[in-house]
Write a sequence for this structure.
């Protein structure tokens, strides 16, 4: 059951009377305030809420209020009920029960007007109690320091004597779940019901709240505010400056091992990425301008530096993409590529700078010559297709330089541009420095610079003079020519 209660109280005594008739009371009927008039034909109840005195006719007339017609009621406290401002909505029917003068008017369980079940109060109130469509389950206005007892199922609007100005109180159109919200415009208080968001038991008040998409925090009084919240919505404790935080749980942030000093990220942990690459998306990419500097500051863009090592001063001042600086005693590999756990290294550079490739691989020049090795001690040079070799130059590629030209199975000493036959010179030694002739060097030819005069071709070589001769080993002795 829903109620609106207003206690009729005035400092002037009056004698309430009940009148019963068919039809509504005549306007201007002279009666005292509090007189009740029941229209038995239309089942309507009227109350004389105020009187008017005419200085012309010297007569006092009554203003009748139909308390079943609905609407907002102009309440003036302290004092009696004032005028009625009609409003939409219709209250359910009310019938008279036991009424006592100078008592709150309420309705009993049968919806009869009564004064016997109305709530008691320790303060002076101007009250009226009705029930019907549009009345909320409970509306209470109490003066500071007093309490207002209520009847279960009743709705009470109490206007304390401390309210010194009249006000029109409009109730919501229908009962609903939510928070009651009142606005005051030109003395008219309108109550609406705002939908409640959330299921908490407390309502949050606010102080200064302004701006769009502003950070919301609480002030010293526990109220919501946008003033002094800061860019981050308040201070975060337990974290270290320059440390990048990580979530240790759904509600907790802790320091990570990564430090950001404004341009340099560092960590003592191992970095690992497991994301799969895709077209135009590598698994890891480093972008940005490469660093430049002096001989002591021009570090590579990607740089391994052994902790405690002496810093180099020979990196290029025109930038280096990839570099490393190891500590003394490093005996590993600078680079080592292995395919699927193979014992053969596809490409390796050890600490001494030795380059090793797989036994079946080749050193190739894009679209040009390449070198392969079919066995230990065998080095083969070919064109890009591996079908042959034109020449192998030594030094210059012009006619001023020498080369070895290949034509089928014939190897010819030629000019560097392959246009002419060049001379193949032999180095010289002395006869005494020749190795002992033996089967192992049979057929070898060596020039000597101290041969005696060759009187007969093929004479045994004898040194001690200044003649140049060609020494030939027959496997037994050296013959000079």
């Amino acid at each position: 059951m829903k109620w609106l209660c207003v206690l009729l109280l005035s400092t002037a005594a009056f004698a309430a009377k009940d009148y019963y008739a068919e039809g509504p009371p005549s306007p201007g009927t002279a009666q005292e305030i509090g007189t009740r008039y029941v229209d038995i034909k239309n089942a309507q109840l009227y109350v004389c809420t105020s009187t008017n005195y005419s200085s012309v006719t010297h007569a006092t007339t009554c203003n009748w209020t139909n308390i079943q017609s609905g609407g907002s009621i102009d309440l003036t406290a302290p004092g009696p009920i004032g005028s009625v401002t009609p409003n939409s909505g219709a209250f359910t029917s009310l019938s008279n029960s036991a009424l006592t003068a100078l008592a709150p008017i309420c309705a009993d369980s049968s919806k009869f007007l009564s004064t016997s079940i109305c709530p008691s109060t320790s303060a002076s109130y101007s009250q009226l109690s009705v029930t019907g469509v549009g009345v909320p389950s409970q509306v209470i206005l109490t003066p500071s320091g007093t309490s207002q007892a209520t009847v279960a199922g009743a709705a009470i609007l109490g206007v304390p004597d401390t309210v010194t100005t009249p006000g029109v109180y409009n109730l919501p159109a229908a009962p609903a779940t939510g928070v009651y919200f009142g606005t005051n415009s030109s003395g008219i208080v309108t109550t609406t019901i705002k939908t409640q968001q959330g299921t908490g038991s407390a309502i949050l008040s606010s102080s200064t709240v302004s701006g769009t998409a502003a950070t919301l925090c609480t002030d010293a009084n526990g109220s919501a505010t946008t003033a002094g919240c800061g860019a981050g919505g308040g201070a975060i404790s337990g974290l270290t400056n320059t440390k990048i935080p990580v979530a240790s749980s759904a509600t907790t942030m802790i320091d990570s091992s990564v430090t950001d000093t404004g341009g340099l990220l560092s960590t003592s942990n191992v970095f690992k990425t497991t994301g799969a690459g895709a077209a135009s998306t590598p698994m890891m990419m480093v972008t940005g301008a490469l660093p430049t500097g002096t001989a002591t500051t021009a570090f590579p863009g990607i740089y391994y530096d052994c902790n405690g090592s002496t810093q180099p001063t020979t990196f290029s001042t025109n930038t280096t993409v990839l570099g490393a600086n190891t500590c003394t005693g490093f005996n590993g590999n600078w680079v080592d590529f292995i395919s699927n756990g193979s014992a053969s290294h596809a490409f390796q550079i050890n600490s001494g700078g030795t380059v090793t490739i797989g036994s079946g691989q080749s050193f190739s020049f894009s679209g040009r010559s390449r070198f392969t090795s079919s066995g230990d001690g065998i080095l083969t040079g070919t064109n890009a297709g591996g079908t042959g070799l034109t020449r192998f130059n030594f030094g210059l590629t012009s006619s001023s330089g020498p080369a070895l030209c290949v034509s089928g199975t014939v190897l010819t000493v030629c000019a560097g541009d392959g246009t002419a036959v060049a001379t193949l010179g032999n180095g010289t030694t002395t006869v005494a420095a020749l190795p002992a002739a033996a089967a192992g060097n049979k057929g070898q030819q060596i020039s000597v610079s101290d041969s005696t005069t060759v009187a007969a071709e093929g004479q045994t070589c004898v040194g001690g003079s200044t003649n140049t001769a060609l020494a030939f080993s027959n496997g037994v002795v050296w013959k000079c020519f």
Residues 1-16, 69-99, 121-168 have pLDDT under 50 and may be disordered. The first strand starts at residue 4 and ends at 6. The CA atoms of residues 236 and 269 lie 25 Å apart.
